[in-house]
Specification:
The structure holds 2 protein chains of 2 kinds.
Chain A lengths: L5 H4 L14 H4 L10 E6 L8 H10 L25 E7 L18 E7 L7 H5 L5 E3 L5 E3 L10 H4 L6 E2 L6 E2 L5 H5 L5 H5 L5 E5 H17 L6 E3 L16 E5 L19 H27 L1
Parallel strand pairs in A: 1-10
Antiparallel strand pairs in A: 1-8, 2-3, 4-5, 6-7, 9-10
Chain B lengths: L37 H25 L6 H25 L18 H25 L2 H27 L4 H4 L2 H26 L3 H32 L6 H26 L6 H30 L2 H7 L16
The chains are: A alpha+beta, B mainly alpha.
Chain lengths: 300, 329
């Protein structure tokens, strides 16, 4: 017999060949249970830009390829999150910035920023709040998922998202985005990107533990001489603004959010329903009164 | 909802950086624009006109003045035709149109599109009832459906503005109140203009003139709201349109506002108003408002491709962030 993981021996009759129940316990130290909140903590200071997350995501979710071309934007030939790309590694080269040029490069690797972007699974998710069909729903793991058999491709979730994540695919006419590997969570597995990440830049876990871990990491970095480190999207931090409350997938950044293509203070699109409707109704009411007065006057 | 300030300057946080200086990620869009095309602009135009028409039909019916009978019938026809064509436009713009009925699967109060699906369905049904009642001579049935149809009509002239405002698209989200208000004024201007055309065609000059005055009032209000909205957007950080987009906006303003205001003023200043001038003004309002819906849609899509617009708008305690607090125009 070839090598078998010791845990696998506890289950002589697995429900699927080669699947270890609660495998996430082994790979992420977490048992995935319905009713708890799960998310990602993406620590950009650990990212080496290997794109293993992008590949793992494409493979597991069977995602079609996007445009195949060189962008000229550093090593980022993926470009952006899309209907077919649910992890996107951003590359920011800080050579020649701040008045210097490429001959005055700061020492070591401190002039590189890399960040694996993903759907934030917002606590108050604007895509979900916009969806008129109920295709976008909140799962038992507190994640936000599009049910493609309900989606009719109206596209309202697309401009609603404050992070430009969700998109309607031209291949099947339905909206798609990261599911936080809903199917894997149901099977007790860690999401594919986090499992594939070789540096643990992407950490999967239950939200409260993840936030504590992230705060510890920020203080650790400050102590090590990286005072610019801060959390984006964790409760009470930038990104967790405008009624979004917090993002289940949050980040550790060392530059302004805009540098990573993130808004400094995003907000819930649904905040704007009430003011717009109220002003519209007031205007319509005013013009109705004016019309009534004119029409009565016309009779005299 | 003032939002959390950036952490800079807090204990253990980096020293205060300069204000946002236009940093972007290779100039790539930070949000995605909607996948909608001209059909959504056309629907918004049709919906506003239909809603306004049913409001005017209810007023005509309530006046108990037989001179308005022709207008009431025309208004009900406009409502039914626009709701039908509009509904078909919406369905054809879906990327999976054979599942259009999922729009009525749930009701979601946070989604103006969900609200609008029910408003349009109710409006279409009630409008059909008013028109059928009229055509079959069941005046009582038509009258019973008229007030609910007009109330649904108020929704029709209003919700499309809220639908655009409740997005992360810079040009739409920058001033939600003004966008909501100008949608309603545009709907009423289009309805008054369309029905005035009907009165002129039917040779009813008196009622036509009353509708001209209403169109003049609504157009004046719409001009004020639209100019304020455009200025407010720019102040919040949305780039002003350039090139072809600027030309399209100018022509929309010229046809929707400048030309009809001039023509209506010309007619108001003389003892015998010219029906020809009135017809020209009404046509100009209709073409101009249709162009304006197209421009609003298109300029929004463009603004979503400019990361600077979005980032300026999403600075703490600025732009979109202010909504729900004080300071929104």
């Amino acid at each position: 017999m070839t090598s078998v993981h010791p845990r696998a021996l506890d289950f002589p009759q697995p429900f699927l060949d080669g699947v270890i129940p609660d495998e996430a316990e082994l790979t992420a130290g977490e048992r995935v249970e319905a009713g708890k909140s799960y998310g990602f903590f993406t620590d950009t200071t650990l990212c080496i830009g290997c794109k293993a997350c992008e590949v793992a995501c494409k493979e597991w979710n069977n995602l079609p390829a996007d445009k195949d071309r060189m962008t000229g934007d550093s090593y980022d030939n993926t470009g952006a999150l899309s209907a077919h790309t649910w992890r996107h590694v951003a590359f920011i080269e800080r050579i020649g910035r701040r008045g210097g040029d490429s001959t005055t490069m700061p020492p070591y690797q401190s002039n590189w920023l890399m960040m694996s972007d993903v759907c934030k699974h917002c606590h108050n998710a604007p895509c979900l709040e916009a969806c008129p069909t109920g295709a976008i729903f909140r799962t038992e793991f507190d994640t936000v998922v599009v049910q493609t058999d309900i989606c009719n491709g109206c596209g309202y979730c697309v401009p609603a998202c404050p992070f430009g994540v969700v998109e309607v695919s031209d291949q099947d006419g339905k909206a798609h985005k990261c599911t936080l590997c809903y199917d894997r969570l149901k099977g007790g597995l860690e999401p594919a990107c986090a499992k594939a990440c070789p540096t643990d830049s992407i950490q999967f876990g239950e939200l409260s533990g993840l936030v504590t871990r992230a705060q510890t990491r920020v203080f650790e970095l400050h102590a090590q001489g990286q005072p610019a480190a801060y959390l984006y999207g964790a409760p009470e931090t930038p990104g967790a603004t405008g009624g979004l409350d917090w993002l289940n997938c949050f980040f550790l950044l060392t530059e302004r959010p805009e540098v990573y293509n993130l808004p400094a203070a995003p907000s819930r699109a649904a905040n704007r329903v009430r003011p717009a409707l109220a002003a519209g109704l007031a205007t319509a009411g005013l013009l109705t009164l004016a019309a009534a007065a004119l029409m009565r006057g016309g009779r005299a | 909802m003032s939002g959390h300030p950036l952490p800079y300057g807090r204990p253990n946080m980096p020293a205060a950086p300069a204000a946002y200086r236009g940093e972007t990620y290779y100039g790539r869009a930070a949000v995605k624009h909607s996948p909608w095309d001209w059909r959504i602009g056309a629907y918004m135009f049709a919906a506003g006109m239909a809603g306004g028409s049913q409001i005017l039909a209810a007023l005509g019916e309530a006046s108990k003045d037989r001179r308005w009978d022709g207008m009431v019938r025309n208004a009900r026809t406009v409502a039914v035709v626009n709701a039908t064509v509009g509904g078909l436009l919406l369905i054809s713009d879906l990327k999976t149109p054979n599942r259009w009925y999922n729009m009525l699967r749930i009701f979601r109060p946070t989604s103006p599109m969900s609200m609008g699906s029910f408003v349009l369905t109710g409006f279409g049904t009630l409008s059909a009832a008013t028109l059928a009642g009229h055509a079959l001579g069941w005046r009582r049935a038509a009258r019973a459906a008229q007030v609910p149809a007009a109330l649904a009509g108020v929704g029709m002239t209003t919700y499309t503005g809220a639908l655009l405002a409740a997005t992360s698209t810079p040009a739409w989200s920058a001033s939600p109140r003004l966008l909501g208000a100008r949608t309603a004024s545009a709907g009423m201007a289009s309805a008054a203009a369309a029905l005035a055309l009907g009165e002129r065609a039917g040779g009813r000059g008196g009622t036509g003139q009353t509708l001209d005055r209403l169109a003049l009032l609504a157009t004046g209000l719409d001009l004020a709201l639209s100019l304020t909205a455009d200025a407010s957007k720019n102040r919040a950080g949305v780039e002003a349109p350039r090139g072809g987009e600027r030309m399209r906006r100018l022509s929309a303003y010229a046809l929707a506002h400048a030309l009809p205001l001039g023509l209506y003023a010309l007619n108001a200043g003389v003892r015998r108003p010219s029906p020809g001038v009135s017809v020209a003004a009404a046509l100009s309002v209709l073409v101009g408002q249709a162009l304006m819906r197209g421009h609003l849609l298109q300029s929004g899509q463009r603004s979503a491709t400019r990361p600077g617009d979005y980032f300026r708008l999403t600075q703490p305690s600025r732009g979109v962030q202010r909504i729900g607090g004080a300071g929104d125009a």
